[in-house]
Write a structure and sequence with these properties.
Elements (H helix, E strand, L loop, with lengths): L6 H7 L12 E6 L7 H14 L4 E6 L6 H4 L8 H5 L10 E2 L5 E4 L14 H12 L5 E6 L5 H8 L4 E5 L3 H14 L5 E7 L4 H17 L7 E8 L3 H8 L4 H4 L4 H16 L2
Parallel strand pairs: 1-5, 1-6, 2-4, 2-5, 6-7, 7-8
Antiparallel strand pairs: 3-4
């Protein structure tokens, strides 16, 4: 599939600078390290809340092989960004309107099989094409869990990296591994603590991660920015099963207000 690169794929390869310095589009890569922390749910709800602030948002489901954002947005995509890469559709065909004004989904494909022989650079070139279209203010890239080569490649495309984590020890171990890796090339990592009932809990853990980084003599110029927490609520999982967004359905609940605070802090950090 990928070794038979189409004309459209060649067009993507020919793009020379994914930063597009003349573009006002901001790219935010949302990652986690550990799976099961609610990263995709947070990403979808961030997109919705950003749209309420007047932003035109594109959400790219970059979880290669385990895409699920189409479920959260209750969409059955005819085409995914893999179809575009493989030359089976046009770029506009993968821009899927959602039920939420100014929120567009670029779907992935669950069960997609890839190997090291795949040209993975084509995956992130889709982001270049989204930016070049000048249709969006913000692009949210929802990566897969872990730190595999595809996740790392998506993190290369932006300096705005948001890690969603929990207070689970294994999740924190993965976040520290992410922090160590990013400190070699980036200047900061933003953190959002999900399923965490107190703001101060995430703040305290963030300080501990910073101290650990200093103790292990990581890049002292690297910054870890704590954006806030989102409390665990039974209603969040219920809305998810109903293919709805909790920030809309439960907009007066504490978790939605907390996520709004996260977004306000996020907007101050991105560039």
């Amino acid at each position: 599939m990928f070794n038979q690169i189409s004309t459209q794929a060649n067009k993507l390869v020919s793009l020379t600078n994914r930063r597009f310095s003349n573009s006002s589009t901001k790219v935010i890569v949302v990652t986690s390290g550990k799976g099961g922390v609610g990263k995709s749910t947070i990403t979808a709800n961030i997109a919705y809340l950003l749209s309420l602030k007047g932003k035109k948002v594109a959400v790219l489901d970059a979880d290669i092989g385990l895409a699920n954002l189409q479920v959260l947005f209750d969409i059955k995509p005819k085409f995914t960004f893999f179809d575009y890469i493989e030359g089976n559709c046009f770029f506009d065909d993968i821009l899927l309107s959602t039920a939420y004004k100014n929120v567009t989904l670029i779907a992935g494909k669950s069960g997609y099989q890839y190997t090291k022989s795949n040209n993975s650079m084509l995956f992130t070139r889709v982001v270049d094409e989204i930016i070049a279209s000048n249709k969006f203010d913000i692009v949210l890239v929802d990566t897969g869990a872990g730190l595999n080569e595809h996740v790392q490649e998506f993190m290369e495309i932006s300096d705005n990296i948001l890690a969603v984590t929990t207070t689970d020890p294994s999740a924190l171990t993965d976040v520290y591994a992410l922090l160590k890796m990013l400190s070699l090339k980036k200047d900061k990592l933003m953190l959002c603590f999900n399923h965490t009932s107190k703001y101060d809990t995430g703040n305290t853990i963030t300080k501990s991660l910073k101290n650990l980084a200093i103790k292990n003599k990581l890049n002292r110029k690297f910054m870890v920015q704590y954006l806030g927490n989102v409390s665990e609520m039974r209603g969040i999982s219920i809305t998810g099963r109903l293919r709805k967004l909790f920030a809309k359905e439960l907009n007066k609940e504490i978790a939605s207000k907390e996520l709004n605070l996260v977004i306000n802090n996020l907007m101050e950090q991105i560039r």
